[in-house]
Design goal:
Chain lengths: ~475, ~170
């Protein structure tokens, strides 16, 4: 890039919003007003409990607030407009404080169209753009009509790919589907659910044993059990309901959700790392899950990260590995030779030491660890952000060191634990060099233009002649 | 163990590289910080312990302060000596840490932005901290205790190199 990485150019106060810019869906103020109303009801409810007053006063207050919130929402809706301005998507908003943001298309990491339950009933959707470096989603456009959202997504992706903006949405090929039966079983076998059920059962047993006077005290500890089981049900079953993964020239498309539906699109070359996880209880059935790092996704809370980083919630290991192979552009992680950690690492990792291993192939680094939950972490050389070695006092005694391959934030953390120091340093040195070479041949940010006009697009590096043919 | 740890030192700061030390004034700054911390903590601790242990409380507090002084006096120069950075052709190396040794390799092309920080005490001694950020928050390329001029030079050089070698994510 010839200019510093900056996704939000400063506000341009004097440029008026171009006339072709569009507004959000007219129902937006109403949909957002709901949230205010709910808040008002909660506050007033608490008040009412403390000093009761005639119900009409509360009704009047509540109604007044709702009207005010809706009017405020309507004004803000009127002043919020979006549209393409040159190469970037520009969103102008604010009444007193005008705000104008630009989202650079070549930095676009993912586009999500989310449909919360209420939105689904009214036929509207929320469009989120993830841009690397943003600590949170770059201005979610909520709400748009579903048609508008779909059309805008197609346009965003076409522009990000560096092709004609009018190109219709590309066709897709189904890669994986998660049958309901498997999803239900995987939920029942998940650690959180089993733990919750165990807690509840233990409490029930205790309940039957103690005298009836003391029972009330035992009911309370059941709550965490119920919560754990419910949470597991919600995250695995509710969120990943009807999960499908499809591939298209735009990248990977993920659809999922029971009540709130999510549709994610991750363009090619945006996946920064892959984690294949195999929890203990799934192993009998040979299942695994796949998570990925996408820059921008993890910027929000950890909760959000797990919600958005799932590439495959549950699948037979062979299928998962096949998909990982596709995601990594044909590189098979199992073809990389793994070097186990030395035996003396058992002093620091008594249980999983013999599982600790890593390997570096032509294009990827593979790290294996985990005894009960098996993990295989894969980071392409081209996505290496930096490399580190650390050594603590105990490691120094044992002559061990730990190497890190840093990636963008997310569930994938390639930590090569407890290697002989010489090896760790050699690895770091080699990895820096491998990453440097790999960056030159990586997929360009505008993934469709790799054979045309690369110079003007300001792409990944200076070696314009070589790299189009290298890959 | 001395021979082995010497080898490891060599690994964390390979002698083939041109290692730049950070300013000696960093030691002074850290001493002042330590002295100020102890000056605040020790009386508080003494008062607190007075209620529990009577006169012995003060003795304990002074002992703790002495341990702090000795420990800091021993460790701070070592920490300073452990800091080092090296600007190579393609990447920046940063090494630091006494108990926990660390070596970070950050390619210039991965740089997102550079920070220069200088607190009031740092400014008094003409020092600044330069930090190079990548898209990964784990990349720990922070160099404290640089003379202001060197910090400015490094900042400019890093941003120039980052621009020249920039890669997409």
């Amino acid at each position: 890039m010839t200019e510093p990485v900056n996704n939000e150019t400063p506000v341009e106060l004097r440029t008026a919003t171009p006339s072709h810019f569009r507004r959000l869906h007219p129902l937006t103020p109403l949909l957002r007003g709901w949230a205010y109303l709910a808040g008002v009801i909660v506050i007033m409810g608490q008040n009412a409990l403390r000093n009761p007053a005639p119900i009409s006063i509360y009704l009047a207050f509540g109604f007044g607030f709702a009207v005010l919130a809706t009017i405020a929402g309507a004004v803000s809706w009127w002043f919020t407009r979006y549209g393409f301005d040159g190469d970037a998507l520009r969103i102008d908003s604010g009444v007193l404080m005008r705000r104008s943001r630009r989202v650079r298309m070549d930095r676009l990491q993912a586009v999500d169209v989310n449909r919360p339950l209420v939105g689904r009933l009214l036929g509207v959707a929320e469009l989120r753009m993830e841009v690397a470096g943003g600590s949170k989603s770059e201005a979610p456009l909520k709400y748009l009509s579903l048609d508008d959202a779909t059309r805008l997504r197609a346009e965003l992706l076409a522009r990000a790919a560096g092709i004609d903006a009018e190109t219709p949405e590309a066709p897709e090929r189904m890669v994986a589907e998660v049958p309901l039966r498997r999803l239900v079983w995987s939920t029942l076998l998940s650690g959180g659910f089993v733990l919750g059920v165990l807690l509840i059962t233990a409490m029930l047993v205790a309940l039957a044993l103690v005298p009836s006077q003391a029972r009330a005290g035992i009911l309370a500890p059941m709550l965490p059990g119920l919560l754990a089981a419910g949470y597991a049900l919600w995250t695995q079953l509710g969120r990943n309901f009807g999960f499908t993964l499809a591939e298209s020239p735009d990248g990977y498309r993920i659809r999922k959700g029971l009540l709130d539906m999510q549709h994610q699109t991750v363009p090619p070359g945006r996946i920064q790392g892959v984690l294949i996880r195999q929890p203990l209880l799934w192993r009998a059935r040979g299942w695994a899950e796949v998570h990925v790092d996408v820059a921008g996704y993890a910027g929000a809370s950890a909760e959000n990260a797990t919600r958005t980083s799932t590439l495959l919630p549950v699948a037979p290991l062979a299928e998962a590995m096949e998909i990982v192979r596709q995601v990594l552009a044909g590189v098979d992680p199992s073809s990389v030779e793994l070097h186990p950690a030395p035996q003396r690492s058992r002093w620091l990792r008594p249980i999983q030491w013999s599982r600790l291993a890593y390997g570096a192939g032509d294009k990827i680094v593979v790290v294996r660890d985990g005894r009960f939950t098996r993990r295989l972490t894969v980071v392409p050389h081209a996505k290496t952000q930096s490399v580190r070695v650390t050594q603590g006092p105990i490691q120094r005694r044992l002559r061990l060191a730990t190497a890190y391959v840093d990636t963008t934030p997310g569930p994938v953390n390639a930590i090569i634990r407890h290697r002989p120091p010489e090896e760790a340093f050699q690895f770091v040195e080699d990895q820096a060099e491998r990453a440097r070479l790999a960056r030159k041949t990586d997929i360009p940010e505008q993934w469709m233009v790799q054979h045309a006009s690369r110079v003007s697009q300001g792409n990944t590096d200076g070696d314009v002649h070589k790299d189009a043919s290298n890959e | 163990m001395t021979v082995a740890s010497h080898d490891v030192e060599e690994l964390f700061a390979p002698s083939g590289e041109k290692w730049q030390p950070v300013s000696r004034k960093l030691v002074t700054v850290r001493y002042i910080v330590l002295a100020m911390t102890l000056a605040i903590v020790t009386p508080l601790l003494a008062v607190g312990l007075w209620f529990v242990l009577d006169v012995w409380g003060i003795v304990v507090a002074v002992a703790v302060a002495l341990v702090g002084v000795v420990w800091g006096g021993w460790l701070i120069p070592r920490i300073w000596r452990a800091w080092g950075y090296s600007e190579r052709q393609e990447d920046l190396l940063v090494t630091h840490g006494v108990m926990f040794r660390k070596l970070t390799v950050v390619p210039y092309g991965r740089m997102q932005f550079v920070d220069v920080n200088s607190g009031p005490l740092d400014r008094k001694f003409g020092l600044a901290t330069v930090q190079m950020h990548t898209a990964s928050p784990a990349s720990d390329a922070r160099i404290p205790g640089l003379p202001a001029q060197e910090a400015a030079r490094l900042r400019d050089r890093l941003s120039a190199l980052g621009e020249a070698k920039a890669a997409g994510l």
